[in-house]
Amino acid sequence: MIRALAAAALALLAFAAPAAAQPAGYFDNSGRSDVLTGGVRMIPITTSKGTFRVWTKRVGNNPRLKVLLLHGGPAVPHDYLEAFDSFLPREGVEYYYYDQLGAGNSDRPEDMSLWNLPRFVEEVEQVRVALGLTRDNFCLYGQSWGGLLAIEYALKYQANLKCMIVSNMMASVPAYNDYAQKVLMPAMDPKQLAEVKALEAAGKTEDPRYMALLVPMHYEQHILRMPFDQWPEPAVRAFTKVNQPVYAYMQGPSELGAGGILKDWDRFEDLAKIQTPTLVMAARYDTMDPAYMEKMARKLPHGSYAFMPNGSHLALYDDQANYFAALTGFLKKFD
User: Fold this and answer.
1) Considering the chain, what percentage of its residues have pLDDT values greater than 70?
2) What is the pLDDT of residues 38-49, one digit of tens each?
3) Hey, which end of the chain has fewer CB within 10 Å, N or C?
């Protein structure tokens, strides 16, 4: 299905918005080893199947506050997060774009045994070490699948974290599927929903009719609440670059719930073990239940909650002012 969305998205590419003004000295590259590459580094990642390289890009300088961005998907590249360029530089936040293994500008090995949660956690840890991020400055941001990965990372490596943000991700895939079944789907046109389910049951998620139905009834309602032909260029670009085999293996073929290897993932009770100050970001029209996410914030010993009243799964676009006010307000507490 993502491949079909990518094909449709190719026709919508446009120019990105300009970045905001930066504080004095924010782009001082003195002593940096990545000056020649504009902040880009290819970091070697050791796995049981060999060594591969992942792509990262640094923006700015701040020894007290460095944010590593975990994109969604799995295997949807970092591109859609580029809206951060309009907000984080003016707050003096140093941040890192990062394409996880199998995504975007990083290596794309075809060994399916690599696509498992423990290996992804170790990948994030190797990236942290390579970038020199420490407990004194390291904040981890995860959106959607990236939020799931951030939770898993914190459960093993919270000693390395200064703060964390979980955006648009519930702490339980079964609870997410239940919300889709009981809240999202009943609000859809029953005839169209039945046709979508029939196409899924027949394994025809690449059929153009599948996306023709899903774009107005799902994507424009719960993923990014704008007409599809007005979606921002970085979001469109990200969908054109998805690694479909990895996405389908982990998330599953359906866009109305998760059915891949993550379908039984549930860490809600384990949230109580995370002592890292954590912001949980939810949105009214998201595929993720905002009421459940508010409970997540209460379950976390040092959790806080931000609600986007006009937003969906990509609230960083469709409720942008509220989203970045909440995000940067949280981050500045640690600067």
Assistant:
1) 93
2) 999 999 999 999
3) C
In this structure, which amino acid lies at residue 223? I
Cα gap 307→283, rounded to integer Å: 5
Task: Tell me the pLDDT of the chain averaged across its residues.
Answer: 92
The 66-70 sheet, strands edge to edge: 40-47, 50-59, 94-99, 66-70, 138-143, 163-167, 278-283, 303-308
Q: List all residues 6 or more positions away from 254 whose beta carbon is below 8 Å from its beta carbon.
A: 1, 200, 205
Catalytic option among 286, 289, 318, 319: 286
Catalytic residue among 79, 85, 144, 289: 144
| Global pTM value | 0.92
**What's the average model confidence in pLDDT over 87-99?**
97
Name which of 214, 211, 167 is nearest 193 in CA terms: 214
Q: Quick one: pLDDT at residue 253? A: 81
Annotated catalytic residue 172: no
Is 286 labeled as catalytic in the residue annotation? yes
Burial 296-327 (b: 16+ CB within 10 A, else e): bbebbeebbbbbbeebbbbbbbbbbebbbebb
Q: Are 92 and 26 in contact (CB under 8 A)?
A: yes
Known catalytic residue at 313: yes
> Closest Cα partner for 287 from 201, 228, 221?
221
Q: Strands, E, within the chain: which ranges?
A: 40-47, 50-59, 66-70, 94-99, 138-143, 163-167, 278-283, 303-308
Among 71, 78, 222, 313, which one carries the catalytic annotation? 313
